[in-house]
Design goal:
The chain is α+β, with helices and mostly antiparallel strands. It is built from eleven helices and eleven strands.
Length: 320
């Protein structure tokens, strides 16, 4: 049998992906020389757990974790991102994606996922500490990067205090399985199903986090009326719909928290990892933050952020 190995992509993590062709069959080789536990061991264990609950994730074919390598099922090259960009009617794709989120939210939350006989993977609780840990990426990377260390110090404490007040207003407790990076580039049409990848960061969190990740995705710009339609579809199908006010507030807070984190991550990818391609998303990320800032609960934060990062600076996509 003839074997062929071809590199296909890398992502924002330390992983690399290769397609292995064995005769007429293919599989994906994943390598990770850094953060092996998270990128390989946790990924494999979480995929297995979710697949057992009816979520279509890649099956592990073979694993050599100590060598930093694993072989998984091949879902192909097409992500939902590609399908949506080609389609004039994108709502059905988002409808199916929301159905996956609803399915995730029906899974009974557990604190541990079995890796092997005497070893478990602990699922963290996405509490205020973790919310800050993520939004601190904005404060520690983006802000000093674009303002300079001295000027950024003036704003960091003020922003953190306001974020803390907002995080304390979050209504729904962390009782739901949350993918934590649920966007169209991590969703793949596989025959009649939607395959879900990049599950390694699954956490116990708020039900609106994945909804915000999907609707306010920085990688693809969709009309506001479609965003609202997707959100309304979620409300219609969710068992939590009686709490619309709290759902919307949680959605707005988590969308802003996530997109501040993304500003930090993408700026860090440029500086630390020499991946400048992510800078092109920064202006639209700010637009999404500004969109959700229309909620009156953000009045103080909006003013501080505008004092810190001007409208002109928010439009920049090239920092040298």
């Amino acid at each position: 049998m003839q074997y062929k190995l071809k590199k296909i992509r890398s992502d924002a993590s330390f992983r690399e992906f290769f397609r292995l062709k064995k005769g007429n069959k293919t599989s994906i080789i994943v390598t990770a020389m850094k953060e092996r536990f998270r990128n390989l061991v946790a990924y494999s264990a979480i995929n297995k757990f979710l697949r057992g609950k009816g979520i279509h994730t890649p099956k592990t074919i073979s694993q050599h974790f100590n060598e930093g390598i694993m072989e998984i099922e091949d879902f192909g090259d097409n992500t939902l991102f590609h399908s949506i960009r080609k389609s004039k009617n994108i709502f059905p794709y988002y409808k199916k994606s929301i159905n996956v989120i609803l399915k995730l939210q029906k899974i009974k939350p557990i604190n541990k996922i079995k890796i092997k006989l005497n070893r478990n993977l602990k699922l963290n609780n996405y509490n205020i500490k973790y919310l800050h840990k993520d939004s601190d990426l904005f404060l520690n990377w983006y802000l000093p990067g674009v303002l300079g260390k001295r000027k950024s110090k003036k704003f960091k404490k003020k922003i953190k205090i306001e974020l803390n007040k907002l995080y304390k207003q979050i209504f729904f407790k962390n009782k739901f399985i949350v993918h934590r990076d649920f966007h169209v580039s991590n969703i793949m049409p596989v025959k009649s199903k939607l395959g879900i990848i990049d599950t390694q960061d699954v956490i116990l969190g708020n039900p609106m986090y994945d909804v915000a990740s999907l609707i306010d995705d920085v990688r693809i710009q969709i009309p506001l009326k479609i965003k609202n339609k997707i959100f309304q579809y979620y409300l219609k199908k969710s068992s939590l719909r009686k709490n619309i006010y709290f759902l919307k507030n949680d959605f707005d807070i988590l969308s802003i928290q996530r997109n501040l984190k993304i500003l930090g991550i993408f700026y860090r990818l440029n500086i630390r990892d020499k991946k400048p391609q992510y800078l092109k998303y920064l202006p639209y990320t700010w637009k999404l933050i500004e969109l959700r800032m229309k909620n009156k609960i953000f009045k103080n934060l909006e003013k501080i952020l505008l004092d810190a990062v001007s409208k002109k600076l928010r439009k920049k996509r090239n920092f040298k």
